[in-house]
TrEMBL record:
<keyword id="KW-0963">Cytoplasm</keyword>
<dbReference type="GO" id="GO:0030170">
    <property type="term" value="F:pyridoxal phosphate binding"/>
</dbReference>
<feature type="modified residue" description="N6-(pyridoxal phosphate)lysine">
    <location>
        <position position="662"/>
    </location>
</feature>
<dbReference type="GO" id="GO:0005737">
    <property type="term" value="C:cytoplasm"/>
</dbReference>
<comment type="function">
    <text>Allosteric enzyme that catalyzes the rate-limiting step in glycogen catabolism, the phosphorolytic cleavage of glycogen to produce glucose-1-phosphate, and plays a central role in maintaining cellular and organismal glucose homeostasis.</text>
</comment>
<dbReference type="InterPro" id="IPR011833">
    <property type="entry name" value="Glycg_phsphrylas"/>
</dbReference>
<comment type="function">
    <text>Phosphorylase is an important allosteric enzyme in carbohydrate metabolism. Enzymes from different sources differ in their regulatory mechanisms and in their natural substrates. However, all known phosphorylases share catalytic and structural properties.</text>
</comment>
<comment type="similarity">
    <text>Belongs to the glycogen phosphorylase family.</text>
</comment>
<keyword id="KW-0021">Allosteric enzyme</keyword>
<protein>
    <recommendedName>
        <fullName>Alpha-1,4 glucan phosphorylase</fullName>
        <ecNumber>2.4.1.1</ecNumber>
    </recommendedName>
</protein>
<dbReference type="Pfam" id="PF00343">
    <property type="entry name" value="Phosphorylase"/>
</dbReference>
<dbReference type="GO" id="GO:0005980">
    <property type="term" value="P:glycogen catabolic process"/>
</dbReference>
<keyword id="KW-0119">Carbohydrate metabolism</keyword>
<keyword id="KW-0663">Pyridoxal phosphate</keyword>
<keyword id="KW-0808">Transferase</keyword>
<dbReference type="InterPro" id="IPR000811">
    <property type="entry name" value="Glyco_trans_35"/>
</dbReference>
<keyword id="KW-0328">Glycosyltransferase</keyword>
């Protein structure tokens, strides 16, 4: 490992003092904690800028290949702690502040989470940026600087309430506005068919309105402080101050209205993963991001080149799901319409540059856009998409001359009552690489989602199993464990997580196991305090902390977990069967505001919590707590405090999961189905160190169609008792029949997510787990092996694979 380059901290204190005095205009004595957080951050930012400038000069001098990660979401979480750790100065800064009478931890607690993502997809993007910089690779992010991130969740009477998350998108100390590098984005308007001087077809996109993309940069420093890349987020502005033409016509208010409507583009992050038809603003957002990013990427490329011959050798672009799939059309438009390249040449460049990652197989999350909306918003792009499709279908007729059905299936345009653009098809046709995010998922992409494309281009398809950054998810989130590991095996694990393997042999050392378990206990105490503060529930750190933290979604089966809790309640209450160990069931996660059943499930968790926690007998063995407003900063406290990690999606539905990796690395044992990366976690830790239950993908596929939950119900008095309770007043009191829709979905509507099919096997696995937990030594060894054997889930490994196999990206040390 290259040594850490520590920045010079001699002027640090003065920078803080100057900030408070000359930027905020206050004497130090009046500064609030938030003022001081901003002061410290701006002093840190100064250090980041030096690294950033040096990095950019190094890249320029070497004319390196750069990778641009385009994503509608980047869920960075708070940045101060991470930046300090990556630069190796957390302890020095702590000491400087202490000297000034300040407490770093108090200041860090003032930092709001930039919640610019929904969940796994956005957090993965943030982990990737950390790994790219830590590996000293030229990898950059492009996203949107939403004024409102994901809503804030509070709980009232057991119900989820949403509040807007107005984060300091204009004043965050980490954001550097780059007004000098604006991007101009034409949108709306119409196509006028004209001819060029040679009589060729020369379409003119006219009457568009212009939106301005203003870049805001967040520096991303890698571990060791050698490299700082950047995440560039665009805010939308109206062109000029007002629409001058309307203004001159004397309609002042209409001019202001226009300005407001342009600025709506970056107003808010869409909070759901399912596409509701006809959300025009979402398409405009996707296009806005893509147009800004492509312009910026080309501008940077042209600083050092004067034609496009080298483009795909110097530029790689990764599409984070189909949300930025319009990059295919926008890059073509730019190369052909703006820079005058021939179509075929432009097409080669485009496909050699672009690569696409699929993150979901759920049909409701697969993007399709009605032609009418695409034509209205980006008429020229629709023309280009038609032309791409025409040529694509032409090659298909050569490959599959007698198979018109296949052409229909593969076309970028879906025929039907309402014609639509299939964004995944556009992304696949326009890319040289298509990957899934875990082995099983990549397999299902090839065999289930787009088998026709796999048949045509088998070499395009590959797997890149997700990973998470050990800097945030171990070094920063779990300082106790990080310290113990470093004391025992050195600190190389921070940049090479596979070295955690060396912990395996320490499993035979009782003193080490004792220390390892003590750290878990301290983390549980810290988590218990959080639960008390946010959910007002007392929990026992000596009980099993069993945690289900992720978005609330039917396929993630929080309902199955609740069924198991209710079952446990009745076993104690009615049958006097006491569990082997007391357990605290902890939930955390947001439901999309329009997702009725997911919100009802949150209400059910609270209903069950009320009954269980108040029951004098049962509450000695079972407690239930829901921690509101799950976000990165809370995850950093929740995950290190887990004994058990619930990863219980219906097999085939969770593309990968990344929370599963964070829990395992922090020494939680997984209770999971054979889905997503759980399968690879099982492979890594071994069957004795994980609880796998339920039907696997093949079994689920075989059951579809013939599955009859009624049959299972009829044969299981335990399930009947649980479901009848869900449908009774027990958990909802006076709110009659409140939970009927949850009962109904399972009992009368086919139990699409197969909760009942996996129930018994889940209960059995949970019983085994409780039995193992009370064997303190065995349990400690299991959890240690989870930490020791999950080094491959570092996002450094994932990024090395992308860099070598997809991007052709090299280290620039
Ligand atoms: C779709 C849409 C459709 C339009 C409205 C906004 C929106 C937002 C998100 C999505 C798709 C989200 C797909 C996703 O988050 N997949 C997750 O990706 C993780 C990282 O690869 C993976 O670990 C999770 O298993 C997978 O669910």
């Amino acid at each position: 490992m290259d040594s850490i380059i520590k920045p010079d901290l001699s002027g640090f204190e003065n920078t803080i003092r100057d900030y408070v005095r000359y930027v905020l205009g206050k004497p130090m004595t009046d500064a609030t904690s938030t003022d001081l957080f901003n002061g410290v951050s701006s002093a840190v930012r100064k250090l980041l800028m030096d690294i950033r400038i040096e990095t950019e000069q190094r890249y320029d001098r070497r004319d390196v290949k750069r990778m641009h990660y385009i994503s509608m979401e980047f869920l960075t979480g708070p940045l101060l702690a991470n930046n300090l750790l990556n630069m190796g100065i957390q302890e020095d800064v702590r000491a400087i502040l202490k000297n000034m009478g300040l407490d770093l931890d108090i200041l860090m607690a003032c930092e709001p989470d930039p919640s610019l993502g929904n969940g796994g997809l956005g957090r993965l993007a943030a982990c990737f940026l950390d790994s790219l910089a830590s590996l000293d690779m030229p990898g950059f992010g492009y996203g949107i600087n939403y004024d409102y991130g994901l809503f804030k969740q509070s709980i009232m009477g057991g119900y989820q309430r949403e509040k807007p998350d107005y984060w300091p998108s204009r004043s965050s100390p980490w954001l550097i506005a780059r007004s000098g590098e604006k991007c101009m984005v034409p949108v709306y308007g119409r196509i006028v068919d004209t001819e060029d001087i040679e009589g060729g077809y020369n379409p003119m996109w006219s009457e568009w309105k212009l939106v301005v993309g203003r870049p805001h940069d967040i520096p991303v420093v890698g571990y060791g402080g050698h490299t700082a890349n950047r995440l560039r987020l665009f805010s939308a502005w109206a062109s000029e101050d007002f629409d001058i033409q309307i203004f001159n016509e004397g309609d002042y208010f209409r001019a202001v209205e226009r300005k407001i409507s342009s600025e709506n583009i970056s107003k808010i992050l869409y909070p759901s993963d399912s596409q509701e038809a006809g959300r025009e603003l979402r398409l405009v957002q996707e296009y806005f991001l893509v147009a800004c990013a492509v312009q910026d990427i080309i501008r940077i490329y042209l600083k050092q080149h004067d034609d496009f011959n080298q483009f795909s050798k110097k530029v790689a672009i990764q599409l984070n799901d189909t949300h930025p799939a319009l990059t295919v059309a926008e890059l073509m438009r730019s190369l052909v319409d703006v820079h005058g390249l021939e179509w075929d040449n432009a097409w080669d460049i485009t496909t050699q540059t672009l690569a696409y990652t699929n993150h979901t197989l759920l049909p409701e999350a697969l993007e399709k856009w009605p032609l009418a909306i695409v034509e209205k918003v980006i008429p020229r792009h629709l023309q280009i998409i038609y032309e791409i499709n025409r040529r694509f279908l032409e090659t298909l007729t050569v490959n599959y001359p007698d198979d018109p059905q296949r052409l229909h299936r593969m076309s970028i345009i879906e025929e039907g009552d309402e014609k639509q653009v299939r964004m995944a098809h556009l992304a696949i046709v326009g890319s040289h690489s298509v990957n899934g995010v875990a082995k099983i998922h990549s397999h299902l992409v090839k065999t289930g989602l787009v088998p026709d494309f796999y048949d045509l281009w088998p070499e395009k398809f590959n797997n890149k199993t997700n990973g998470v950054t050990p800097r945030r998810w171990l070094l920063s989130a779990n300082p106790g464990l990080a310290r113990l590991i470093t004391e025992s095996i050195g600190d190389k694990w921070i940049v090479d997580l596979d070295t955690l393997k060396a912990l395996e042999s320490l499993g035979r050392d009782p003193a080490f196991l004792e220390k390892f378990s003590m750290i878990k206990r301290e983390n549980k105490v810290r988590l218990a305090r959080l639960i008390k503060k946010t959910a007002y529930i007392d929990v026992d750190p000596d009980s099993i902390f069993d945690i289900h933290a992720k978005r609330i979604h039917e396929y993630k089966r929080q309902f199955l977990n609740v069924m198991h809790i209710i079952h446990g309640y009745f076993m104690i209450q009615e049958e006097g069967v006491i569990p082997t160990a007391p357990r605290t069931y902890i939930f955390s996660g947001k439901a999309a505001p329009g997702y009725f059943l997911a919100k009802l499930l949150i209400r059910l968790i609270h209903g069950v919590a009320d009954v269980v926690n108040k029951d004098p007998l049962v509450s000695q063995w079972i407690k239930v707590a829901f921690i509101p407003d799950y976000k990165v900063s809370l995850a950093e406290i929740i995950i290190p405090g887990a004994d058990v990690s619930e990863q219980i999606s219906t097999a085939g539905m969770e593309a990968s999961g990344t929370g599963n990796m964070k829990f395992a690395i922090n020494g939680a044992v997984t209770m999971g189905t054979m889905d997503g990366a759980n399968i690879e976690i099982a492979e890594a830790v071994g069957p004795d160190n994980i609880y796998i239950f339920g039907h696997d993908v093949e079994e689920i596929q075989a059951m579809r169609g013939a599955y009859d939950p009624g049959k299972i119900l009829a044969q299981s008095p335990h399930i009947q008792r649980v479901l009848n309770a869900v449908n009774s007043p027990l958990f909802c009191g006076w709110e009659n029949d409140l939970f009927f829709p949850l009962f109904d979905a399972v009992v009368n509507h086919g139990d699409y997510y197969m909760n009942l099919a996996d129930f018994q096997s889940y209960v059995d696995a949970q019983v085994r787990l409780s039995g193992d937990y009370v064997d303190k030594k065995k349990w400690a060894q299991m959890t240690l092996l989870n930490t020791a054997r999950t080094g491959i889930f570092s996002s450094d490994r994932t990024i090395r694979e992308y860099a070598g196999e997809v991007w052709g990206l090299e280290r620039q040390i």
